[in-house]
Specification:
- The chain has 502 residues and is α+β, with helices and mostly antiparallel strands.
- 38% of the residues lie in helices and 20% in strands.
- The protein folds into 3 domains: 291 residues, no CATH class; 113 residues, no CATH class; 57 residues, Arc Repressor Mutant, subunit A (Orthogonal Bundle).
- Helix 3 runs antiparallel to helix 4.
- Bound molecules: zinc ion and manganese (II) ion (MN).
Length: 502
């Protein structure tokens, strides 16, 4: 039986849990000196340590610890004064030592939170996602399945192994269970990953490119009947590689679980793989319990004991908390709640701020980015930051409109030209001939022509019937190809016909 999303949320409460793996952008790997540059020839960035040769000894990368602490601090976590690495034992063809160095019961960051805001039926609403832990570990190598149609192992003729990724430092950020999101669970999951991505980018600790795998999200979802206390069985959808997919994966899993439960079947605790083409997941492996990994303390590494002075030094370098920053900007720009939410939803805050910092009026900067430029972005199905128009272009356009050198109508054409790659605003104005006709004698000549072509209309205006002036103004605007300032035309026209312009 096929259920709609509305059927699901009428009966069940979803509970989320999100795990995000972040590849740090350190120059060298977690436990050896090998380079971490992305895209190198396979197996050229390896050594006995990251290949897992017997007897090779790992050494912790200090910069990676620093990044982990920064991430913990930004997520309001406690930084453990003492933490240890463990061996997590499992077999993976791209992990030759058959264990991954990770952190188990003594992670470096614990008990934090991240606030995310989403648009609900009742307006913007904030959800607090509590963080259980953030720990350090190493990445595995990569299997490339060759000869098949899909690039997956099924149907492949053979597989190749690339160990360049083996040993790249990762921080895994694990949330506590997130109940209480109700029908907004998919949006909250997406907003959490988006917010995390922004924070990590602002910390400068990772490239956070989901499509390149430097930020990977595993979404845990379970359902329970509304009012039920016990948690349902969860499934874990692995390595979802875009923000949109996070939302789709959670929604899809909620529907799949509800269909099983309604049919009296059981949800199997397992990992699942998200399929971009269908928005559905397919079964992966049945999920190990923690005890299956046979964790034990890594005997080759000393504990990590960051001293308080180091932690405080790092805390002092943190960028402004995103929630506080939003509040500050909203106050500085006097933006109503609803428009602020629209700006955040459109991911336009940074770009508007950059435009304002270049001297543009906040309301006008916001208006262009969320209006005309967003419209073009929607048409092209890209985000505004992907369009080839910069904050400095928009700041320049805003200034020209304020000075009266451009009308709004002309400004729209300039924006279109810049986005089409016709050059900077000044070049577009020049090549398209978009300057406002502010030469009064040229305007007066156009007004005379309008009056001569519509003498009866002009007569009505002379007799005090002001609304009739619209047709004449329209004719002047047409005559000047829309490059005149309509308000100025009106003023001149009415004055010329012996009427006051207010
Ligand atoms: Zn190495
Ligand atoms: Mn992990």
């Amino acid at each position: 039986m096929s259920l709609t999303y509305e059927d699901v949320i009428a009966k069940y409460e979803p509970v989320l849990g999100l795990e995000v793996h972040v590849e740090l952008n350190t120059k060298s790997k977690m436990f050896c000196g090998c380079s971490t540059i992305f895209g190198a020839e396979p197996n050229t960035q390896t050594c006995p340590v990251c290949l897992g040769m017997p007897g090779a000894l790992p050494v912790v990368n200090e910069k990676a610890i620093e990044s982990a602490i920064l991430i913990g601090l930004a997520l309001h976590c406690d930084i453990a004064p003492y933490s240890r690495f463990s061996r997590k034992n499992y077999f993976y063809p791209d992990m030759p030592k058959n264990d991954q160095i990770s952190q188990y019961d003594e992670p470096i960051c614990i008990n934090g939170y991240l606030d995310v805001e989403i648009e609900t039926d009742e307006g913007p609403k904030q959800f607090r996602v509590e963080i259980e832990r953030a720990h350090m570990e190493e990445d595995t190598g990569k299997s490339l399945h060759m000869g098949g149609a899909t690039g997956r192992i099924h149907g492949a003729d053979y597989s190749l192994l690339d160990f360049n990724r083996a040993g790249i430092p990762l921080v895994e950020i694990v949330t506590k269970i997130v109940p209480g999101t109700g029908k907004y669970a998919p949006e909250v999951a997406k907003a959490y990953v988006a917010e995390l991505q922004k924070i990590l980018r602002s910390l400068g600790v990772s490239d956070v490119r989901m499509e390149q795998g430097s930020l990977r999200c595993d979404a845990n979802v379970s359902l329970r009947l509304i009012g039920e206390k016990t948690l349902g069985t969860r499934s874990e959808t692995k390595n979802v590689n875009s923000l949109r997919s996070v939302e789709r994966a959670v929604r899809g899993e909620m529907i799949r679980h509800a269909e099983l439960l309604n049919d009296g079947k059981k949800v199997v605790q397992e990992t699942r793989h998200f399929q971009e083409e269908t928005g559905l997941t397919r079964s992966g492996r049945s999920k190990e319990q923690a005890e299956d990994y046979r964790y034990f303390p890594e005997p080759d590494l000393v504990p990590v004991e960051p001293n308080a002075a180091w932690i405080e030094k790092l805390r002092a370098t943190l960028p402004e908390d995103p929630t506080k920053r939003r509040k500050r900007l909203q106050a500085e720009w006097s933006v109503p709640d609803k428009e602020m939410a629209a700006m955040i939803n459109a991911d336009a805050l940074d770009i508007v701020e950059a435009t304002v910092n270049l001297g543009a009026d906040p309301a006008r900067a916001r208006g262009w980015w969320l209006g005309e430029i967003s419209r073009i972005a929607n048409e092209k199905e890209v985000s505004i930051s992907e369009l080839s128009i910069s904050p400095s272009d928009v700041a320049e356009i805003v200034t020209l409109v304020e000075k009266g050198d451009l009308t709004d109508k002309l400004a729209r054409q300039v924006i279109e030209g810049v986005i089409n790659g016709e050059g900077k605003p000044a070049q577009v104005i020049e090549s398209r001939g978009l300057k406002v006709v502010s030469d009064e004698s040229a305007l007066m000549a156009a007004i005379e022509r309008a009056i001569a072509s519509q003498p009866e209309t002009a007569e009505k205006v002379r007799n005090g019937h002001i609304p009739a002036a619209g047709a004449l103004i329209g004719a002047v605007m047409k005559d000047t190809k829309g490059q005149a300032d309509a308000a100025r035309v009106r003023e001149l026209l009415l004055g010329h016909l012996g009427q006051s312009s207010d």
